[in-house]
Write a structure and sequence with these properties.
The chain is of the alpha/beta class. The chain has helices at residues 14-24, 56-64, 76-84, 102-117, 130-151, and strands at 3-7, 27-32, 44-48, 70-72, 88-90, 96-97. It has a six-stranded mixed β-sheet, sandwiched between helices. Strand 5 (88-90) and strand 6 form a beta hairpin.
Length: 152
């Protein structure tokens, strides 16, 4: 059975993910460092990890995800771990990450980290837009259908 894993602490598309998953009757693991409120639903597994352990949510997701699952995260190192296990990964802006794109995405992340550390870049990521949300919904729908077809 296909499952969706959401890196939930700062995810701007939690509600959208839950709506699409409910329509397809797909289990969602909402993983965070604190309890996230929401409706009680047997298709939503709220996982609260240790607050004091760095990357505890990432570690939980990486340990439980399997091939054909879907992971929603903006965290590139987590995305890389999940892609290596055969999972489909979507960033909240709808950008899919896979075997073909994760290497370049990781390299760009590392370069930007270095440029921020040296003061050459002082800004953060671009603001989240309506277009990002729309693209995310479209890509999530496609990923769920593909994952369900491959899981059969």
């Amino acid at each position: 059975m296909v499952a969706i894993f959401v890196d939930g602490d700062a995810c701007p598309v939690k509600d959208e993910t839950l709506r699409v998953a409910a329509r397809h009757e797909v289990l969602v693991h909402l993983v965070s460092n604190q309890w996230l409120r929401g409706e009680a639903n047997p298709l939503i597994n709220r996982v609260v990890v240790e607050r004091d352990k760095f990357d505890a949510a990432d570690d939980w997701i990486a340990e439980h995800v399997v091939a054909h699952d879907i992971v929603i995260t903006a965290d590139i190192p987590l995305a890389k771990r999940c892609v290596e296990k055969g999972a489909a990964v979507l960033r909240p802006n709808g950008q899919p990450l896979d075997q073909n794109s994760i290497g370049m995405t990781s390299a760009v992340r590392d370069l930007n980290t270095h440029l921020r550390d040296t003061g050459m870049i002082t800004g953060g990521p671009a603001p989240f837009r309506k277009e990002d949300r729309s693209r995310f919904l479209d890509k999530l729908e496609t990923k769920i259908r593909a994952a369900k077809a491959n899981a059969v």
